[in-house]
Batch of 4 targets.
Target 1
Amino acid sequence: MKKWICALMATVMLLGVATACTGSGTPATTTAAASTGTTAAASTGTTAAASTDTTAAASGDVQKLIYGVVAEPQGFDPGNSGETYAIPVLVNCFVGLAKIGEDGTTQPACAESWDISDDGMTYTFHLRKDMKWSDGSVLNANDFVYSWRRIASPELASTSASSMFHIVGGEEYFNGEGKAEDMMAVAVDDYTFEVTLKYPLPYFLDLIRGYDMGPVHQASVEAGGDTWHRNADTYVTNGPFKVRAFEFGKQYVLEKNEHYYNAANVQLEEITFRIIGDNNTGMTAVETGEIDGYDKVPDAEVTRMKMESPAFHSKSMLSTTYYLVNVTKEPFNDPRVVWALAKALDRESIIKDVLLNVYEPAFGIAPLGMMVGDVDFRTAAGNYGLSANAQVEEAKQLLADAGYPNGEGFPTIRLRYYTNDSVKKVVEAMQQMWQENLNIKCEITNADWQVFFAEVLALDYDIGAMGMSGGVAHPASYLEEFVTGRTGNEMTGWSNARYDELLKLAVSSADEDKTLEYLIEAEGLLMADLSNIPIYHSSKTFLMQPYVQGWYCTNTNYIFYENAYISGK
């Protein structure tokens, strides 16, 4: 699952490093190793669970957490949500076949073990037999069959549908060329779920760790209609928490799911995700003790909070912040124009002077740390001629070549962003840089996230703030979002048949050298037309009081509370 970010997964099967920031304040790091043709078994986790249970019980603290979030998503359908703002609820209410452990490795979840065929194309998952939904009904392999077919269904048009294209029959079903029952994700029996892939997929186990690949409760989905995921009465979950109340515009209240298979080790009785749109207000609420944590440290306060606050945390993310370009409109359908705009931006100044942060300048779409075998993709692909600093003379020449010398005759750019203090500063800096370096004017407008996202999908903008985080730590999982018909493609109107073909070749190739070759060529095509202007790769800065223990944050922007507890508040 990729998340369209405002302003998902650390690899286990690749030779990379996955990290998690933990509730103890200590980074946990593990070197990932390949896992093919083997059987994976569940670890008991009894020592850590017993420790947190004893500590929480002995503390005498009320086990209720209040955590501030920045904005509200359009909904909370785990099988069809591509929004960052839905993450806090989704990752704590739903769990799939496997999950991301505190050390970044793939851990058994609904599946207590699995077998992988020698050719790497058939996965057999052995499910726990003690699983129930939050309403007390039995959860088994048939729920996964229903849920995965639902994601692949053309009727839902899920943001996660492409995950099913790797499965035999999945893409054909989505395209209306096959039937649901032809998709080879089947229940062998009530507690055995078997998946047959079209080709060996090196990051398949990473893929299934996302909440979007978990189950949804069929009866509730069908009874609740299009709004089932916005109604606490029909929001039946299978994770450590369930929803007590959706108070839209204010907060979401979660409570412990007594039917969760690991409920005995869940310490928190209640989590409230309170919506606080202003970052300074959220920070102050933590400092005054009104809330226990907040999801974004104001950029201007990062240095101070890092030095002074024991609640401060920072975590590198698998993310790229870029600006969408509507290439269906003139003059933005001319790559020379967009390249002029890209080269006129000073990324280093945006990061250091505007955001007052330590992000890394971005020169491509795939984030830093993406590996193909033992090769870092970002290093291999290069920077495409972009620089951390503005390349003003080159930008002016490109604009002149496109027919706009010194910006003469260039239309005013409609620069659109979602309401956010940090993004506001960035777009104002971009406006100034384009005015000073290219003599181009911008009209800046903003809207709440839900309105903004709908406008972007409708191509009702010229240039718009966006980005992508989470997903799988493999460049293919990011680049495939720009294949024709996918969400990334629909947000800009860009399409390239050769690009589409290269992504198919990349994910189906068993030769890592060829995979790298295909992906480098593919990103090169995307960057040549530049329907997305990369700005920076970010880290997550957030607040969590030290008396909140047992949680962990991954580089996919997930904070897990299954083992969290309050001690010494």
Target 2
Amino acid sequence: MYQIQQINKVDLAIANDIIKPAYYAIDALCHEESTKRLLETIDNRIIVSPTELDSSHYQSLASFYKTQQYMDAIGVASEKGGYFIYPSASGDFSQFDPRTKKWYQAALTKHKQPSLNGPYRRLSGLLILSVSQAVLDDEGNVIGVMFLGWDLRNFQYQIEQYTLGATGYMMVLDQNNNIIVSPENHSWLSKRPIDVGLFDLEQLENKTDGIHKIILNGAAKYIRIKITDTGWKIISVIDTDELSEKIVEVIKKIVSIFVLTLLVVILAIGTLAKSFATAIESLSEFTTSIAQGHQRVHFNIKRNDEIGTLGNSINQMVKELFKREKEFKTLVENTQDGISRVDKNLRYVYVNPAMQHLFDWPVKSFMGKTIKDIFSDENWIQVMTVNKQQVFNTALEVTFLQEYCRANGKTSYVHVHVIPEFDQSNQVETVLCVFRDVTKLKDMEKAVIRANSLNLVGEMATGIAHEVRNPMTTVRGYLQFLSLKEIGLQYSGQFKTMIEEIDRANAIIKEFLTLAKDFTIDLSMTDLNSIIQAVFPLLLANAKMTNKDIILNLQPLPMLLLDEKQIRQLLFNLVRNGLEAMESHGVVTISTAVCDKEVVLSIKDEGSGISQCIVDKIGIPFITTKDTKTGLGLAICYTIAERHNARIEFVTSPQETIFYVSFINMKLY
């Protein structure tokens, strides 16, 4: 850990004392207008002494140089080969071309960014760090390169003060593996490790993980390495024997502290165990009560320690838990959707009150029983059992729509959503079923389909009925005329058949016209019972012809807004359907009564009921099971009811079928 701290200090010193100041300085000078003018002035001349140039040309560089304590030299080189250095340089520069130097080429490569170049030694032995950067004109073209020489003496001295124990020290190598700091041997400076026989310091990039043992200058050392963002390598070096001794000392201290701590912990446990025993026992009893569903429990313990804090937290948690449970229970038990839960044996473990209204069974009758114990509808039992078992096996939700035959014989449509509930091992423990009665929605769908069909037929009737009846009337007239002639007497039977078929076609067209949208009705305040009694003799006569009977059960009724002709048509159609559905000696019962806010006309037959395959299609034109019928009778009845703001409902079974026509009781409005 101490090694890492020292390495981080060196890393910080490199960044703050060398790299950042040098980069900032050269970047600022490259953007100075005075630097660009200086490059224009020197052109292609080599100037190694400031006395060769008027001071006004380099005043800015000189001023900056004097403010920097560790700057060794500053200068510029132009694209034409010119060169200027401050404060001065010695040596032979007659063949000197700065453009061939590495620092110049490196600056061109980096373009707008500073380039950090390897250190070099002056004749005096000083180690100098070189930084260079391209100078650009206003159009972004390179016109030269500026360079700085940074004196590393202060940095070297600072790093050499970072020691590791008695024998440890820090080394620094630049990005080219040149040694910059070496407290052990100053003769290694500016040289590569391989040049001075330090082979273990080569390929340091592969040794950045942890501590490595190497041979350094003939002695065994432990090193730790960090490579900075600029590629410099920071190496902490410590003697192996010294590090081993320190490790042993640390282990001894750790063992001593551990033993002492263990003794203290054992004593503390013994002291606190008795104190905690009662509190923990009380807490256990408290949690058991919660698990058993006791809501009015409170963990009453007066302690200021963790047990007391835990007790207060549990009390708050229990309070919140039962509050949420109450909210959830209120929601579940007041929803109109039926909700039940069954276990793996498909036995009910919970049902909400809505189940009683949905299925006509008391809530208590469900508990602990299976679906077969409750329901009698075999189809419902089979579908529900299969879907519940599927959810237990697959752990996947299922939804479906299913018919349910109620106790009163009516069919309800129920939307069912079956949801798996998982235990702690993520296995399906119970299944939750949510039931929603969508009978009214299905009835609305049927009504829409029926209305659309009636509208279509009405439009057809309006468009073609008159065009067909006119030529048929002409044909019927000629058939009657020809049948009376002597030539037609021998074909009188055939003429009669043709006239009957034309009359039958006219009757069908008349029914079509009854369905037309623009059919006008004549409403007046009328007694429904009087209409029934007026047509009863004709209806009864038709019934007697087939050895059947009709019974009236009429109750006093208020006056209604009715079209008498239309209501007669409705009665004829419904009674005729009832008579045709029965065998000999069957009875049709026509009843009237006041129910709530409605006047109800009911027509009951003793037939074998309506086939299930067409129950949902009743009232749709052309739907019939009779070979000689058009399927328009009930469609006309529904249209007449709609024109009177009434509605038609029916109940059917293998023993009987009852049609109900409900009119609004005008007396209540």
Target 3
Amino acid sequence: MGLFGKFLEKIKNILNNISGIKIPPRIKDVLLGILVGVIIAILSMLGFFQKFENITVDSMFRLRGERSANANIVIVGIDDKSLEVLGKWPWPRAYHASFLQVLNKFKPKSVVFDILFPESDPDGDLFLAKAAGEDKNLYLASYFVLNEPTETISANPSPLPHLNYEIKDSDKFLHATDLTLPVAPLMNAAKRVCAVNALTDIDGSTRYLPLVIEFNKRLYPTMSLQLACDYLHVDISSVIVKPGAIILPLRDGDIRIPINSHGEMALNFYGPISTFKLYSYVQLLHEYDKSLEEGSGSILEDLRDKVVFVGHMATGSVDLRITPFSNSFPAVGGHAIALSNIIDRDLIRRAPAACNILVIVFVSLSLGLLSRRGKKMLVNLAIMLSLFFAYAAFGFFSFIFLKFWIHTFTPLTAILLTYVVIAVNHYEAVRYEKRILENELLIARKIQQSFLPKSYPDVPFLEFAARCNPAKHVGGDLYDFAALGDDKFGVVIGDVSGKGVPAALYMARAISEFRTVSRIRNDAAATLSSINDIFAKEGMEKAFITMQYLMFDLKSKRLIVYSNGGHNTVLHFIKQKKNVEEIDTKSGMPIGIMEGADFDNKEIHFEIGDVIFLYTDGISEAMDKRHREFGLDRVKTILINNAGLKAEEILSKMFDDIAKFSKGAPQHDDMTVVIIKAI
């Protein structure tokens, strides 16, 4: 079982424990929403979802598509072609000196070498230092060795300019314990020397770039921040550092750069490296030679007043990074992106952690408030999907149009999990209620069964068999045997309209009224007439009962007086004819429809071997899975073929054949049979 499965199992255990607690359903849904929201929020604070949030924001960049970077920024790559022409790396410093002289002929604003020069090359260093000193526009790279903060001051003090900021114990800026600098001649000749540190996220991708690094209790600007300050004519000492932002003071409005607690800015990627003006190192040298030979213009003219970054781009270089648009993005491009973001004010703002936490709890709470109880699964699914896609659209459009990065994956996960938990809770609540209802219905079934006869009449020359199978726990079918005076007894069978509990209650009353009336009425038709008048006056609206009543004369042994109140015909198997006859009366409407209805009597002569078969329509109308009815003809055939058996055996054979016919199809109506056989 995975982590998600274990989470759901825990939630299910909680739901099992609280499903019976008497809390209003809407309040319970809200509390569950808050519970899930808080759990997801805690996991989010622990960084559980950070990887997925990073993947989500990468997808947003790709969905947004590529955009053009600042046109005043140019990247020159030391690519495979340059290494092929000029030889393996490292090159003599004289190559870079010559290259810098070529660039400076076309007056770039700044030339940034994203290359470390820590080792000495005496001749080459002097040559490069001389070239750098001519225009004083060269920026060289340094590198901080990052470690956990300590109280020890490095023995290698930094000669670099630092921000006017007092380090506090609560600060969480990236902390350096040592510094790698260019050799002294280059340090002295360069306009600036700045750190080019670039960190990766837990998945190996680059999404942030540090703007400041703490070293020896001072805060130093990295290359991107220093370049932006020089480009915008802002003195580094006037830069303001506040929680969550670095502010560059300008006359036409300050630039507020959002940063995290480590002093890193989120990069607003433009696309692959080709979104910048991009040239090859050796390409520019060839273009310069070509311009000298032909005396014509050159693409080098594009470098005038531009910030020119020079860095590694060759295959297999350690300076390649993973970004939303490329798995081999040159590290020099990260500094170019940061500079372009700052000077164009094209900055991404990240939502504070507290905001993300509140959003998680809010969406879970909202779903809890909006959920509906009862048989509304599709409604709840529609609500969940609406909230899910609404928040997904909000997160996407906030990022694309407002450049506001708010957590998206985690709240969407909270919505899905809240829906699952609430749905499971609804299911468990329904199961709990169903168990209670089933227990109550079992009790009701036992009560209803108590109204039916517990034994058959003791008549020596008659066999009896009866069975009542409700379609649900309880039903509306009934039968009864009544011991009457004057050597008579009666048999009644009935079917209340409808099914379930209402029909069962009506059935109980019908048996009670029959037992009362049959004792004072010595006639079948008169008995049904009295019962009809009672129910017509005091019965439920739109409810009725079909009923048959047979009175047996024990003296004659062979005479039955029969009356019918809208019920099925009586099936009479006559042994002498080996045939089944359907018997009905001329009049007799269902019980309870109209007061004063007429009912007739009819005599049936009952000989040895004859069988009287009383049934409700659930028998003849039993259906298979294709909705075909069992039919009265099958009932007659079974009766004819098995009339020689005992009454109980005939009954069992009838129900067995119906079960085989139905083949597992659900019983759609109550089924009741009473069989009387003359012996």
Target 4
Amino acid sequence: MALKVLLFFSLCRSWRLIRSLIGWLALSVFSTGAIAAKSNSAQRRVALCYVRLSYTRTGEDAVSPERQRANIETMLADSGLTLEWYEDVQGHRSGADTEHRPGWRALERRLDDDDVDLIIANDLSRIHRRGWRIGQLIHRIQSNSKRLLLAAPGRQIDLSTPMGLMIVQFIAMVDEYYVLDARLRQQDNARRRREKGITTGTPPFGTYRGEGGFLKRTQHGAWYLPDASFVSGPSKACPAPGALWHSFSECALKILTLYATTSLGYEKIAYQLQRDGWPFEDKRDQPRPVSGDDVRRVISNWPEYGGLIGAHRAKDRNAADLAQLDGVTFIEDRAVFPTDLLRAVALRQRKNKILYESPAHGVIKDAYAYPLRNILYCASCEEKARQAAMPALRSRLGGTDQNGIKRYRHKSGVLCGGQARSVRCETVEAELLTLLATLKPRAEVLTDLLQLAVRMSRGLKFKAVDATQQHQQALHRAERKINALHRQYRDGVLTEVDYTQQLAARQRTYTELVAQPVSAARVSFELSDCVIMLDQLDVLWNMSTPAHRQALAQNLFESIVYDLDQQRIVAYTLTAWAQFFLAVPERFDRTAKLDSSAF
């Protein structure tokens, strides 16, 4: 057992090593399996094309991405380059940061590749609206001998001259000022609207803004079809025999009434509305079943339904905001629902918030690490999401402790047609154990990995250098940085908060360097240990703690689809590195049925 535990920790240290090795192999040998692929890729010239739309409000906004693509294609029509497209056009994709721009982050990972010739966008603001980010990008592009092109007419700039660089920095400053100015104007507009008693943002469910900007009850609704799906449409145009029509405003009124007159919670109200065929309208104006979160949203908007303006956003309101409820006076002329009903809703919400916002409520002292947390999905919901092409209909199975029995439970407030709502953890994990026993490393990839491990040290790409000496120098640099940080704190240069944050980061870097393998022999030894354990994943699972099982499952699988009624795994998706490294036997290959990667 001691040897197994030792091998397990060796495997844990080697996850990053295997991923990096596989990444290099995928670039060098996956496409052709030979060194010739490297020369072929060097001859291939690629243009990285980027398209961004700041915010999608209506269907007319799609014109902007189409115009950007057309300008880029026109400019590169006779260039002979291969166009690779990266886009951020759905939802809110601000150019002020990169956090919500997966397309741009994917493009950045390609910037240093040898086959990339240039980066092109419609104009500079599509790339970034921060001057310092533009400066970093230009430095990186010039360091790698790449080019940056702007496709919009009249926007072409020559970055090889000092004048061109100065113009780019000036444009970047103007773009950044535009963001700040737009923010100030939006804040001023919101303040003015609140002074006039007009809500801001998306109108609450079941309402729209009428004359003067005040809320009115909407007459729109949706049909509930016999197959349990929803179709938008007017009440006089029945799409199928047996269909039932409900308006969105009546659905909101039904939610408020059930909450005020019964003791039902959010999830049970949602269950009842789903059984009766009541529709909810999402932010894209598409009807769908009501969920527990939808019920919470409607209830929290009781001030807006009564013609008032809340002090905070609905989701941020707490018991303190409801303390002076007895003195609240609704505006009858602007109220969209009966004020007596709204007051009853507010009183019950205040009572519940006082009860559930106690310091000890919801605190779990001994939390259990459910091994399949965040990767286990309901098969019935997955099928409905695939048929409707709506990823939002997918439901994760969360962990719960029912009378001391650990179970995976279906998401609350959602009815998907399945009978079972939960399953014992050991039942799911026993099925997963059968799957793990069938996953074996690919022989051809294993040979390439072992050869590559002998040639690498400390992540250096095939350079003949003294890795041990470089590793020692890196350790000394990390130590000097920590000591310098201590001196700056003693001299009063750093505040305590900055000192604590920077010290944690530098100590983490030092610890990673200490644990980093530096010799080819050590790399090969650790990789061999790792391969031994990957060949016996079921053994590794059995000897692990729940927390280690969770780490193992999330490293191997992006998602696992489980049928609660049949109590079996019906589909799964391996992570990128596992797909490259592990072979899936045909007798357990169920990925074709419900592959969540289709979303």
